[in-house]
Write a structure and sequence with these properties.
mainly alpha
Amino acid sequence: MKAITRYLYYFLLITLPYFSFLAAMTRLPFGLFANIFLLIIVAFTFIKGVNVREWLLFIFLSFFLLVIIVLKKLAFDIGLGEMNGSRYYLIVFLYYYITVWLIVNGELKLDFLFNNIVINSLLQALFGISHYIFFPTFNIYPLFLHGVDLDDFTIAGGMTRESGLLGNASVYANFLLLGLFLILNRMLVKKDHGVIKYLYCFILLFGIFLSRSRFPIFFALLALGLFCFKSISFKKFALIFIIIFVVMFGAVKYIFKGYEMKDILFFENRALKYKTAYSILKADIRYDIIGTPRKILQASEDPASVFSDNAYLEIALNCGIPFAIIYYILFFRIFLLSSNNFKSYFFIFYMLSLLFMTNCMGWNYWILYIFPVYFILVGEEAVKSGKFLIKPYKE
């Protein structure tokens, strides 16, 4: 039974990053297929493979969400499809349970996870770089909106933000960033500083820059700086840091040409969006308790003031403040229970920051891949130590 779970998980891990593109090409609900597939894996994993308290917490969270959906239906007469995106709030825990269960039971090796994530991120990066250089005027994004229709596929002046096959520049850049984290970690742990590893880093970094996503660019450079600091002497670090700073400053100036500094630092628009979210929550006590109808969130005529790009506020707006607080306590408890080195603390800092800057809890690939990446950073012994509250299962 464990072997069946392992192979199903392998299939999901390898193919999930391409589901959006397949859905766009075929107009089939591949995201829904992935969720159904996930439930099949959970069925094979068996409930007794996970600590009873963990399942009770998951059942409580699921019931809480169901109550909110019913109350929103009664209070605002919303369609059930409006809460469709909230399924990811529960799916993230299922990804966690399955990944840890397979590692604890010896069915999933961290080397396999490393190779899969790095290869997938490199493939996405190479596709994005090739598309940006050789076909800059061909826009892939309409595929994700209305399928195989060649209208509006040409962009005057070329692409502005590369998104690869993931349909969104920010998702694309953060996907590549996970691969970069793992390669730098491997170079640091195994002292493997071969030319090929630096080439991988360059490819991923180039792909991240082409996305023009400021947050991943910042964390890519920060991770690179920390790697240099940890792996070489201070004098060499200072020299390399200066070179990186000069090169990257020139790259940023080129990539963000035409942008004002306030736009590059994204203060003004972000503040306006967050102010909008605060105003909505303050308008009606029901919004604080059970969340806000979508029509309220999209009521503004100014696109710049429509709320987006903050997962903390997004869950509060969708499901109410009490649910959001409980949800994030349970979510970050997973990571805080097991953090054991500066790399794990860095990754937690990355997640805390990303949740503040994006709606990443709705990115299906990201919520699947964060757990393998984190487990590789903390090491297999930490995963099997019991800190993740998953026990070995004997058939």
